[in-house]
Each structure stands twice: as C-alpha cells, then as structure tokens.
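Retro notes (design track)

What went well: tokenization of the new backbones is finally stable.
What didn't: we kept losing track of which sequence belonged to which structure.
Fix going forward: every design gets posted as structure first, then sequence, in one message. First example under the new rule, 424 residues:
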C-alpha cells in the first residue's frame, strides 16, 4: 500500500464527516476500511452486504469524486465485503440450504402440511441431495423438486435418483420438472426441452420405474441403446410440470400428474389455468381434474414496509426485468402491458445492474413500488385471518394444493391455525 494512501483516506474521511454529519458518518462511513489499490482502483471494505449496497448507492459517486481529487491516479472505487464477511456469505448459503431442506421440512411436517417443494441451484443445492436430506429427516410429509430439469442428467441417472428417493422415503417423493432457463441451456451447451422431448423423456422415466427396458432408442433424449434398472421395480412416482405458460398448461394436462404454478397469479388467472389443464386432459382422453393444480402464494403475516418491499415488490420487479418472463404472467392474468412498458423505461429500474430483489436499496424499491399496480401483487398479506382467507380463496378458485412462498413455517404457523378454524 502506498504510504500516501492512509493520509489521503484520513482527509477524505474528515470531509465526509463534515458533509454528511455525525449520524450518517458513524452509521455508514466510519465502518469503511481502506484495503489497498489495484489497477488504479481503491478498494474499501465493509462488514456486511447490506452496508455495501447502501454505501454504493448513497455515497459511491462522492467517494470517487473525493478520491480522484486527492489522487489523480485513482480511476474507480470498489466497495467490497471484508474477508470474514465473504466467508460468512458462503456459510450463510450452506446454512440456508440446510434450513430449507431439514429444519423447515420438519417444521412443516409438525404443522400437518402435506408437501415441501425444494428448488435446485447449481451451487450447493443439488436436487437429489437436498430432497434426500428432507426425506431422511421427516417421516410423513411429501418432498418435491420445484423444479429440476429433464436434460441436465442422463435419463438413467435421473430415473435412479428419483427411484432411490422414492424407496428411501416409502413413496413420499414427487418429481417436479421445468423446461430450464434458456440462457443457462446455452451456457451449458444443452438443447432446449421442447414438448416432444418432454413427452419422450417422461415416458422413458416411467418405463424404467415400471421395471421395463428401454432398447434401441434414438431420439430427442439422445442415443440410448440399452437402459434397464431391474425388472423388480414398480415405482409410482408423480411427475409435476413446473411452469405457467398457457400452451404449457394445456400440455401438462395431457401428460403430467400435476402442475406447480407461480407467484402473483390472480383469481382470474387461476381459473384460466384450471381451464387450460382441463382442456389438455380432455384432449388426452383423461378424466377431468386428473391433474392437480398447485398455485404459489406469497404469504407475509403483518409485514413491515421493508418486508413488503423486499418480498413482494422486489420479487415481482425482478420478474418484470427478465425479457419474456413477466409477459407470461400478463398473458395468463390478462393484464394490460402498459405498466410493464413504463417499468422497463424507468431510469431507476434501468440503472440497476442486476436482479432488483438482490441489489436494490429500500429507497429504490420504494420508488419501484409506485410502478407496479396493486392488482399485480396478489398475495396472502396482513393479519393471520386475512392470510387464511387468501389461502382458502386459492382453493375456491380451483387449487388442489397450495405452495406457501416467502415465509418460513415458523412465520406462517398462526395462519395454519386460522385456516383450520375457517374449515371447521
């Protein structure tokens, strides 16, 4: 570190203190630590991710201005997490996985819930591993993926993963399959999963689970000369489609056992989704309501303003950032597209270089909340009784099951009691 940097930093700190006042200085600026320089960039560290986001948003430009006035060699300022904080972030991700897979599954089971849905991420959340942890630590609740993909594992590897979970748990596993994210498919060198591939893929899985052999197959699922898991198998594993596009729901009605939908679907959207599933069932000659419909409802009991902004506004805003994603919600709910167009043209929205729910400040979220119509955020929010009524409303509009999103079992436990009282 250059000997002049600490002196320059001391003068900058003094100016920041004078400009912003003692309270702001002590809360946000005093914790900044000078770490060093790298390629004309000053590196400052902070103890928490929230503090880093806040300092970057509120003081980043001024910090750069002061540094460049002190040292003409400086071209940028990076605000980083302290080494221990970065390590803690890694630990928190692992802890989150353990909490979701084990602790929350046990809590959900103790509340008498029927199923826990676990998402997959390609870091520390392999679907087979976390579902195994959840199933091994519970005794009655079902566990489902929401979802994994058909094409990220060889067919016999996916079939074996599922049959292992099925027999390990005494038949409590459900396979939830999604098409996958287009950009990830491209980065991984994988072809997208179209309807034909989906149909042939789930047929192969079901053949193998019945103890049948797959021989001489050459098609969308690859070249499969011979697959066999043993003729003794007889694993009846439900397969749910994870998605909510109109054509996809009709397709799910033809071929799947259930459909796991999405957050922020209105009553009108739910009824339309049920109709689309029924249309698919009819086309395939299946009995009406053979396919279960599981909507996803964001739930927040007496949320604070911050909870509302982060759990509701932040999540919807992130969907609205993604090209093509919010459009599917708009189509299903039959909303006007104008709010989405205004949202994407907004300067604050376009200035956020990343997922809004991950990096936006509370001030940014507060502004963004004015861009999203209230009817675009259907949820179970408010008192326990109001949340329970919102849960009941999902079933009144065609749901066969309900996925509670955005709260832990500990947080929504009072709603379960209120909902049971409603049913009594």
């Amino acid at each position: 570190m250059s000997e002049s940097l600490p002196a320059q930093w001391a003068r900058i700190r003094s100016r920041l203190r004078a400009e912003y006042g003692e309270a702001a200085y002590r809360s946000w600026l005093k914790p900044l630590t000078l770490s060093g320089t790298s390629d004309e960039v000053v590196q400052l560290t902070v103890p928490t991710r929230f503090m880093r986001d806040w300092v970057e948003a509120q003081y980043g430009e001024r910090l750069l201005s002061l540094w460049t006035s002190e040292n003409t060699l400086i071209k940028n300022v990076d605000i980083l997490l302290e080494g221990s904080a970065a390590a803690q972030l890694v630990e928190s991700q692992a802890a989150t996985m353990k909490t979701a897979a084990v602790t929350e599954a046990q809590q959900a089971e103790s509340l008498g819930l029927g199923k826990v849905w676990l998402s997959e991420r390609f870091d520390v959340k392999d679907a087979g591993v976390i579902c195994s942890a959840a199933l091994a630590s519970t005794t009655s609740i079902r566990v489902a993926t929401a979802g994994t993909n058909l094409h990220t594992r060889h067919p016999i590897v996916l079939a074996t993963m599922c049959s292992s979970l099925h027999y390990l748990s005494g038949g409590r596993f459900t396979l939830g399959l999604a098409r996958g994210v287009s950009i990830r498919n491209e980065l991984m060198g994988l072809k997208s999963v179209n309807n034909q591939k989906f149909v042939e893929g789930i047929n192969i899985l079901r053949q193998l689970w019945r103890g049948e052999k797959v021989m001489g197959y050459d098609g969308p699922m690859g070249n499969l000369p011979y697959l066999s898991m043993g003729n003794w198998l007889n694993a009846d594993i439900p397969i749910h489609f994870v998605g909510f596009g109109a054509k996809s729901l009709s397709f799910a009605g033809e071929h799947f056992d259930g459909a796991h939908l999405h957050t922020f679907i209105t009553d009108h959207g739910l009824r339309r989704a049920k109709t689309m599933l029924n249309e698919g069932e009819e086309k395939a000659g299946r009995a009406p309501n053979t396919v279960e419909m599981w909507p996803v409802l964001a739930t927040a009991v007496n949320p604070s303003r911050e909870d509302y902004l982060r759990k509701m506004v932040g999540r919807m805003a992130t969907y609205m950032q993604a090209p093509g994603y919010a459009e599917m919600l708009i189509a299903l709910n039959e909303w006007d597209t104008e709010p989405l167009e205004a949202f994407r043209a907004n300067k604050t929205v376009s200035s956020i270089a990343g997922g809004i729910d991950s990096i936006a400040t509370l001030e940014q979220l507060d502004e963004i909340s004015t861009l999203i119509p209230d009817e675009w955020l259907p949820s179970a929010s408010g008192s326990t009784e109001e949340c329970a009524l919102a849960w009941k409303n999902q079933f009144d509009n065609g749901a066969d099951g309900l996925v509670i999103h955005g709260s832990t079992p500990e947080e929504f436990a009072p709603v379960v009691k209120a909902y049971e009282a409603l049913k009594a």
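Added context from the reviewer: The CA atoms of residues 209 and 389 lie 40 Å apart.
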